[in-house]
Structures
1.
Amino acid sequence: MARYAPDSFSSPSVSQSTPLEASAPPHANEALTGDALAGSIAPLAARAAVLLSVFSGLAVGALLMLALAGPAPERLQQDAELAALVRTMVLVKGIILLAALSLVTWRLSRPVARPQLAGYMSSLGLSAAAVAWMWSLNAIPVAALLFYGGLIGCFYTASRDPLLLRLEPASKRRPRQPA
């Protein structure tokens, strides 16, 4: 019978990696090192940029609402309860936008690469503009397409972000300072 020899399965030429690094896609391993984040944006500046893009999106949406203002669709003019329902649905879309914004803001507590930051900024700004435009009850289908397009863009950017759900092991976290 052959005996188990622990050194027989490993060789010096094979690199030892952690299970997280081994299961990560090839582009994620680059981001796990400090080299990929060398040209990254600091967390405070990244958060400020995303918030600025969301507020800019809200302003653009409000300008679209005013520029394209016209009478609400006839069906909404006749039924006040339907108009209230549609506005409630717009508020729910605003809550969805706030949830996406809070996840992205949490992610931006660590350095982020410029392309990912640009993706987060443009997608959340587009969704914010669409929510503001929807409030006017004009062209709701177009605004809804823009809103969901922005959310899908944010999801796409987040799916390509290797540091989004990467949590540090408890042993590497800094201990909390007593208050």
2.
Amino acid sequence: MRILISDAYSPTNVGDGELVRLSIESVRSRYGVLPVVLCTDKAGFEADPEFSGTEFCFKPLSRVRWRTFDAAGRLSMLFRDVSGILLALVTSILPIPTSTRKSLLRACSRTLRTAWLSEIVRADRVVGVGGGYLGDKYLRESLITLALYRVAIGLKIDVETMPISISSAKRTSLSLALRFFGRGVRWRSREMTTQNILLGLGLHSDCVPDLAWLNVSVDRTDPQRITALVVAPLGSDFYGNDRPKEPKIWPHMRDYVSTLDPGARVSLIAMHYWDNRLQDGRDDQECERVAELIRGVNPQLKVSIHKLRKYSEVLTHMSGARFAVCERLHAALAGLAVGTQTKVVGYEPKHRGVLELAGLHTLVDESINSIQTRITSEFIAEKGAEQAVLTRQSVMEA
């Protein structure tokens, strides 16, 4: 059996990289094979020892690949990838035998030199990676993803997703693509907002906890917890022109910082660092802004910034912390996976939705003081273990 995982982004976003790793592990556990992965950042994944043995292929119109070409190369890439998508869509709906469709698309792939199309034709199953890559904010990527799902379904290839989020689907092109290209997909939603969006478009989905809950089974808890606070801010480029003057995470932690004892340790972790090939990230720069504010309120604290490359490093930082404040969802889930009391600062519906599914939605709504006094590490650990079992049953067990 040949499995194709679609929609991987880049390991420069540590949370996304972890979802790719867990998607690969889920496929290997369920089907006993290593998948091929369509991704934006092929070189980034191939250079990472954690993904050794997995075959990666550029997905159509990859931003990283685009930036490697001059103007003529970009025009050629645009023509080949767009032509490949359109021809594949047309072929997938022609009233011809599936074997003929596959033969036509193999010829198309050879002519246009589109490796991604060849991988779709060869696949027995397509699995969308877990995460929040569909929505109005990611319109181009979303339309490409849904078009590839439709092509696969037209070739009688089973299509399913790992637990995903759709931030919104208000744009007409996206809602139509979901309605017509999403039929026949086995959707898994990691929160109720996404499930309701799909239901409103006539699509059924199973509600399954986020893949990151699978890390609950890994015992990394440090009983000493020598770090007073871990902070995981979101890079300011996410907000674009609406970048706030003050880091959005700051009001949620300012009062707590002022109460920490002199010499207490505060760690700021960057989970999506700047990459010139991708032109996004900047969590490290936001960490610097937050660190300056912390020193202004409580100058005797020991403040450090850590640019992390692996999700295991996030788990290690969280396991040694007494408390965490996180904008990054998968930083928060790392904290909860090791039983750390965690305040979650949501910037999209997925934050509240993922935690609401786990019965931990008050971590989004309540103050730090309320969380510390009312929500124990034992309660968090119990809820996390429940989520891990549900996720494993849905995505890993045959």
3.
Amino acid sequence: MTAHCGLTTRFKLSEPPDTYLGVVVPEDVKAVWSTWDGVEWRRWRHYNRGDLYLPDQRFSVRLPAGMCVFHRDMWLRWRNRFFSGRTWFGDGFRSAYMAAADAWDHYRNEWDEKTIEQMRAVEESCLSGRSKQCAGQRICRKLPEAA
């Protein structure tokens, strides 16, 4: 178990490896490994290999510092949603039988992308200071900007 921003989690975010999918991980990418920029770099490694369906990267991102308790909980609820094949959001209820494995992977991949979009929207809303829903104290202090 590990603690971050007042949360105890059952998993530990991984340290950046020296290589990922056979590609040397640059130092600037290692510095942002547990952020959305790190996710984007990893996604492109999969695209460059020709992978159609990417692995879920939501659990590799750290909860951003400075979020209020309300938005932290919303961010975690989005992160913890999983595609079951029976539930769908965005275009109404979809309960299609997944006959082909690639259909399942396709919808799971769309689900992951929509979930990531929602996580990022919650972050932006809270950290921008524009949200009227912000409640409670900030759970972590923002790190000082590098000089």
